[in-house]
Amino acid sequence: MTGELTRHRDRIARMGQLLYGRGLAHGSAGNISLRLDDGSLLVTPTNTCLGMLDPARISHVAPDGTLLSGDKPSKETFFHLAMYAERESARSVVHLHCTHAVGVSCLDHENEADVLPPVTAYHVMKVGKLPLVPYFRPGDKGLAEAVRAAARGHHAMLLANHGPVVAGKSLEDAVWTSEELEESAKLFFLLSGQRTRLLDAEKIAELERVFPS
Ligand code: ZN
To answer: Which domain range does residue 93 map to?
Structure first.
C-alpha cells in the first residue's frame, strides 16, 4: 500500500504541475482528489499551490474525511466527498478556479440546468450538460448537499461565482474533462455576440449513440 500511495501521490503532483503550468490554477486555488481501491482518498493539502505540490505531504484521508497521513487536506474536501458519495464510478475529482469557467459561473443564466452551449462534439462528449450549483460562502457545508444533488445526474458542474467541479473515472479523465470545460468556457466568451451554429439535438443524439458514456 505504501508503494501504491507514493505512486498515486506522484501522479497527483504531476497533474497539479500540468494544471498550474497551463494557467488553470493560480495561488493556492484549486484541489485534486483521487479515490483509492479501499475507499480512502488522496487530496491536495490546504493552502498549497498546485504547481508546487510536495508528493509526500499530499493528504491521505479515510472515507469519512479523517486525516490518515500527510498535511491537513483542502478545506474544500467536503464537496469532493459529496461527489464520491453520489457517484460510485468516480475515481477522481478536480476543482479549479480557472478564469473562463469562473466567468461563466458569474453570469446571470436563464437556464441554470445547462450553462454552456453545445459548440463542439468534444464538449458534448466529455462535459455534457453543465448545471449551475447555487452560491455558498467558502466553508458553508450547505454546498455539500447542493453538490450531491447535482451529482445525481451530472459528473461536471459549475459552482456559482466560484468554479467547476468535475468527477472522472480516473485522474486523467477528471483533468482532461476539466480542461475541456475551461476551453468551452473560453469559446463561449470568444463567440459571444456572434452568429453561432450550435450542435442541434440530432447531432447530440448521434454523439450519445456512437459514444455512450
Ligand atoms: Zn474553490
So the answer is: 2-210
